[in-house]
Amino acid sequence: MVNIIHTTITFEQAKRLAEESASFFLSDFLKDAATPLLQEHYLEAEHCWMFFRNKDIAIPPDRPFCDGAYAISKKGNGSYIADLSDNPEKLQAYLQTMSNYFKQRGE
Q: Rounded to two decimals, what is the model's pTM?
């Protein structure tokens, strides 16, 4: 993902960036183009948001690298990350780790 601007972006812009990334990883698995790529549920930390794949989109076992999540910094940078949503404690720690990562990089 590319940094689109150097100031803080809005939630809507961040979600659009996550959807663009999700489209790259998930478009092969969509049965209906109207299916949302992301869950409504997201997480927010001081320096980023995390967005998660719509679980209605089935990922074949031979393509596990497509089953991730999307961290978008408040400055518009993104990372494709592991989806730890099945473990709330690890997920919260990961959210903070990603927020700190973006902060340290000025992203």
A: 0.89
